[in-house]
Amino acid sequence: MSAKQKMRHVLDIIAEMFPDAHCELNHSNPFELTIAVLLSAQCTDETVNKVTVGLFEKYKRPEDYLNVPLEELEQDIRRIGLFRSKASNIQKLCRIVIDKYDGEVPESHEGLTELPGVGRKTANVVMSNAFGVPAIAVDTHVDRVTKRLGFAKAEDSVLEVEKKLMKLVPREEWTLTHHRLIFFGRYHCKAQSPQCPVCPLLDLCKEGKQRMKPGFKTKNKIIKPKIASEG
After folding, report:
1. Cα 137 to Cα 231: distance, rounded to the nearest angstrom
2. What is the per-residue pLDDT across 19-32, written as a single tens digit (0 to 9) for each?
């Protein structure tokens, strides 16, 4: 089975498992999505959604985030990890959006990645979910699943994982595949307790087969994936 055939099999299986996979960050426009993804770096979507319920009620436009002291914004997102740096980046981002883009989030990947706190992953999420441009954003779930299934090497960077997925997945399926890989990693192929015994992709997963062997123990030496700290 070639790599593309293997990927096609994986795509078909996860499509059956998670047909309704979608972005789980609550938002109503591109600006809110950008803020939500920025906040989600090293934080769960569930926690972000709890914070943005009040945040998006209080702050409607970029100007609103600049009309309060930084300390007040910090308190509003205090439950989020790295809240101080994220609050600072939000205000800097809003200033650029107002001054350079007339208050609207830029619709180009280049424009998005120029914004403070917005890296390649965040830009891909916004481009695909807000503007309908096919993209594969590699977060910790996508990175883990891709490597466990052997489509990327353990030491591959986030960008290398993204490039390999883009070659194997049809372009028109990039965005949906991104969501389904996240769901697969978040709810099935978990970091600590993957559901290997009932996994329909076990036959393709070298790590899963090892885990299923009697007496399997997690190795002491773990290669940490090169996950970007940005959103």
Report:
1. 10
2. 999 999 999 999 99
Percent pLDDT > 90 in the chain is 87
Distance CA 226, CA 53 (A): 31
Helix, strand, coil fractions of the chain, as percent rounded to 5: 60, 0, 40
- Give pTM, 2 decimals: 0.86
In order of 18, 64, 186, 193, the CA distances from 177 in angstroms are 10, 35, 14, 22
Is 139 a residue of the active site?
Answer: yes
Which pLDDT band holds residue 220 (cuts at 50, 70, 90)? very low
86 belongs to the catalytic site? no
pLDDT of residue 70 exceeding 80? yes
Encode pLDDT of 112-151 as tens digits: 999 999 999 999 999 999 999 999 999 999 999 999 999 9
208, 200 in Cβ contact below 8 A?
A: no
* H or E element that contains 6: helix 3-17
Q: Which of 45, 139, 143, 156 is catalytic?
A: 139
Nearest to 183 by CA among 3, 20, 25, 30: 20
The candidate with the shortest Cα–Cα distance to 92, out of 116, 111, 69, is 116
45, 76, 121, 147: the catalytic one is: 121
For the chain, the distance separating the N- and C-terminal CA atoms, rounded to the nearest angstrom, is 35
Contacts of 155-163 spanning 24+ positions with Cβ under 8 A: 155/223, 155/226, 156/226, 157/226, 158/120, 158/121, 158/225, 158/226, 158/227, 158/228, 159/120, 162/120, 162/124, 162/136, 162/137, 162/138
